[in-house]
UniProtKB/TrEMBL annotation:
Lineage: Eukaryota, Rhodophyta, Stylonematophyceae, Stylonematales, Stylonemataceae
InterPro entries linked: 6-PGluconate_DH-like_C_sf, NAD(P)-bd_dom_sf, UDP-Glc/GDP-Man, UDP-Glc/GDP-Man_DH_C, UDP-Glc/GDP-Man_DH_C_sf, UDP-Glc/GDP-Man_DH_dimer, UDP-Glc/GDP-Man_DH_N, UDPglc_DH_euk
EC number of the protein: 1.1.1.22
Any one GO molecular function term: UDP-glucose 6-dehydrogenase activity
Species of provenance: Rhodosorus marinus
Domain of life: Eukaryota
Chain positions recorded as NAD(+) binding sites: 11-16, 36, 41, 89-93, 130-131, 163, 274-277, 344
Active site, renumbered: C274 (nucleophile)
NCBIfam families: NDP-sugDHase
Pfam family membership, one: UDPG_MGDP_dh_N
Listed name of the protein: UDP-glucose 6-dehydrogenase
Catalyzed reaction equations: UDP-alpha-D-glucose + 2 NAD(+) + H2O = UDP-alpha-D-glucuronate + 2 NADH + 3 H(+)
Pathway linked to the protein: Nucleotide-sugar biosynthesis; UDP-alpha-D-glucuronate biosynthesis; UDP-alpha-D-glucuronate from UDP-alpha-D-glucose: step 1/1
GO biological process: glycosaminoglycan biosynthetic process
Amino acid sequence: NGEEIKICCIGAGYVGGPTMAKIAEKCPEIVVTIVDISAARIEQWNSDVLPIYEPGLDDVVKKCRGRNLFFTEEVDKGIREATIIFVAVNTPTKKIGIGAGRAADLTYWELAARRIAAVADTPKIVVEKSTVPIKTAEAISSVLHAAGRTSFSVLSNPEFLAEGTAMDDLEHPDRVLIGGPLTEAGATAIERLSQVYAHWVPQERIIKTNVWSSELSKLVANSFLAQRVSSINAVSAICEASGADVDEVARAVGMDTRIGHKFLKASVGFGGSCFQKDILNLVYLCQSMGLSEVAEYFHWVVKMNDLQKERFVSRIIHGLFNTVTGKRIALLGFAFKKDTGDTRESAAIEVCQRLMQERAEIAIYDPKVEHEQIWYDLSEVTGLEQSQIEKYVKIEGSVQAAAKDAHALVVTTEWDEFKTVDYRKVYQQMSKPAFLFDGRNILDREELHSIGFVTYSIGKPLDTKLNTV
Ligand code: NAD
Ligand code: UDX
């Protein structure tokens, strides 16, 4: 039907912000309001410095903000005025209680749903944008129905954007997935939501399924992607033990069109707010359905990732003559991948923590991550106060500054700027022998070797210069 669409999105985070900005850009006639309980976040969205760094986001926000894109703390008003309500709140792994360490914490989700139930006075389409366990839509429907909101529809519309490329992913999505109840009302709701995406996404890319398939597909997609990274990382261990080169293997294997070349880059380990959380969520679901072998199968994707991080740290310690105590180590990159300031589950955090345990002195440089965030992450993981951490850790403003007097460079994020540094100059000011541990395989190993570095790259033949790595 032609009823006017007005959108409200609860949660102004990495997903809510970019997705709604894209919808506002593509649908100038639709008013899009993003609400959040964090006043500080809303204030940042309304300022010149947005709370998240995402290439291309600033331009779209500047173009649409105040036109048909609004950021506000007024959650209730936003809910009341909307016809479609997206819920894009965080769903982290539970820290306490049943399923702790595996199950998704749905506290924020339920709070948002209960807020909708309490204040919405006209029928709404409620859209799950957050990644949630299967059957969450059903649970949310129950909360709404119990509050007398029986004409509300709950849809699942998981988000597949990746950080660092979010605006591009949103502009050209491989697919948009909409799951809904198998009822007439459900079909109407799906149709209305697909009308929004149809402004720029070709019809054949808008997939409609039942609600459980949609919820499960999101968990499966992330599990498969992470599984590829863990598989190539497992292969990297075989390469180091055998003299094969993981990049050559990935290239040869990936050229098989059935396998494909994407997501086969060996690394220090995957990070980000989604992979580990979503796999553990799937593992928990499998366990609660009595599918313990299936659970174990997926669980190994995360275990392999933990092993990879530990293997990398062991190489560093082993390489540096089995002791890093008192040695300065330059950690290049703290974000979980390039082109983002996000550090959630970043491999760098664990590498840093392990090196701190060995009493190394660590000099961190990351081009985008806020210093405050680094202190916060290290406090969380070590349980120490910032003042205690500062005894081991310094944050520097450039590769050059971090490398001064360092025994080793450790690349933990694949920032492009690390590729163009003058490593001859860097080498000159380092302690000798100078080591390089490339956890992302982005640097030219031959060149660094010829400068004089003892090098280690993931899944590459070992450097025999000193026979320590
Ligand atoms: P985030 O932490 O960046 O943002 C969530 C926001 O929701 C926060 O600003 C928080 O203040 C707000 N919030 C929480 N409870 C609220 C409430 N009751 N009312 C109003 N605001 C509330 O999280 P994110 O990275 O955007 O992730 C959101 C969801 O999307 C998660 O389920 C995640 O798994 C999923 N997801 C994330 C990505 C990603 O790349 N980050 C990609 C796909 C899916
Ligand atoms: C992921 C999914 O890609 C996205 O579809 C989903 O919506 C959210 O989760 P994101 O976590 O933002 O996105 O980044 P992604 O590009 O998937 O990278 C995740 C981690 O895997 C990063 O730490 C990255 O460095 C690592 N990675 C990725 C590898 O180590 N090797 C690869 O080949 C690919």
